[in-house]
Amino acid sequence: MPLNIYDISRRAGVSIATVSRVLNNSPHVSENTRKKVMAVIEGCGYVPNAFARGLGLNSMQTIGLLCPNASDPYLAQALANLERSFRAHGYDCLLSCTDKELSARMQGVELLRTRHVDGMVLMGSSFIEAEDRNNDFIREAAKAVPILLLNGSFPCDNVYGVLCDDQRAACEATQLLLDSGRRRILYLYHSQNYSGRKKLAGYCDALASRGVELDESLMSYFGEDKTSVYQVRDHLLALERQGLEFDAVFTSEDILAVGAVKYAIAAGKKVPDDLSIIGYNNSSYCLCCNPELTSVDNKLSAICDHIVATMMGVLEGREMPQKTVFTGEIIRRGSTL
Amino acid sequence: MPLNIYDISRRAGVSIATVSRVLNNSPHVSENTRKKVMAVIEGCGYVPNAFARGLGLNSMQTIGLLCPNASDPYLAQALANLERSFRAHGYDCLLSCTDKELSARMQGVELLRTRHVDGMVLMGSSFIEAEDRNNDFIREAAKAVPILLLNGSFPCDNVYGVLCDDQRAACEATQLLLDSGRRRILYLYHSQNYSGRKKLAGYCDALASRGVELDESLMSYFGEDKTSVYQVRDHLLALERQGLEFDAVFTSEDILAVGAVKYAIAAGKKVPDDLSIIGYNNSSYCLCCNPELTSVDNKLSAICDHIVATMMGVLEGREMPQKTVFTGEIIRRGSTL
Fold it and tell me: What global pTM score does this model have?
């Protein structure tokens, strides 16, 4: 099996960055180091990726994509964007759909490693576990190939995150509701992963910024499984029967906001006069509702472009940022005042 | 490079079916033929797929999936189903997203061939061209590996189609509208591929079956590109301004039906009292609308299961049906009487 840049770095006893500098003829390398690295390279037939491309050498020219659920509209769009852009760079994509279990995600990463992919993209923030020792499989995989995180960040060598600042975007969406006079804002979510925790923090930030006390009875968690719009509708009807008052709904995903619209219809409430609603992802669901949903555009297309650019840079031995952060944007439509 | 069953068949000068019978110890092979096939097999180190599995021999254990658009909800769901099921059978999936151009589709198939996949799934019926010589790339690829068509059918050795009877389903949906008293049924579609042509034929069949004359001014083609719900709404508003009368809308995709709902809202028409609407695919869009959309369930999950089962059967040398047809089912909701 041909060696890659990481093998060279280990064998030569220098950092990956140093190997990269040698490969790129950087002047910032001592002659001694250059000789040491070149000896390893010449001894093992390594051809740097940029040269190997098209020659069929040392690289399978394949990127592994790990996707927790290709039928999720957000991830499906990301998959299409990534595949197209990697292919334009001469790389094929090997797809592995893990599910939400940690063991399945570990298995997915392992499977791609055995297939000698040049790099991996872990799609969606569900890969980063709150409990740190559960992230060891990512650290381990990053020793062999670069790992790109779509909408996640994780401080580790050879791991690069490209993400939307979900905490800030969730804060701004909640502030928009507060500043239009709403005070009792339901927060509906169905993920407690990295991005899910950021959104929740943003909701709390907004309340604090406007001096509104946090009321935990206004937060509803729907579990990681696919939530139907009817579950959301029925849950809100039950909250209303229990006497809970609320004048707005902010959700971590558009489909939950669609459920809130269904509740409003069932309860005879007018959107946005009686109830303001904001979703998240700015997916095509937003246009199906009447009124159309205000939602947070989390810049997926730009994130995908940057993932591919970062991966290519790393594979070509260039210095790349370990964290790239985009700012979400609230797209205002008829479901808010 | 290791040989596959097709190479063996060519070298031994016998059919693929005969090689398969030898590999499966079928009694219906002459001793002479058996010896000839076994000589080729032993001479080249071929190990039949079923045995090779897990040993890493003669097979990359990879299925190539060609998907014209992974962000389309129907294809995204299919992708998730197929990947999961192939992985459960020990096969990885190499994904290639072609676009709608014939040349891109040809290139996608060629790319998977060079990666030595064990088989290919062409997803969606846009792969089958109306003009037959444009299908030569499929015939050519089928000489090397089995080709499965998701929702398509094409008479060619080593090509297997698993599909929904879209003509029948479209006919039944149109008949449902006619039998509820509607006479002026708009048909909106945005594909002229195999499945698109079947749906159009079903619409025409239904009119003929109820003695209603076909009026071409009621049929609107929206082009293969992604159609926005606003385009559909504005088109119907324009038709109304031109004085065209219609009391129902049937569409080839749910998203077009969502556009018809938007038209009804803009035109102040009540659904279904003033306008009945039926979509196609029974996607999650149906539940976002108010009223919810009646739609055709085209049995995608069963189709995916059968694609994987058929592929496994072919790779194991078993006799498999070249065409498997499911019947669609109309899911009635609030948008029809």
Answer: 0.80
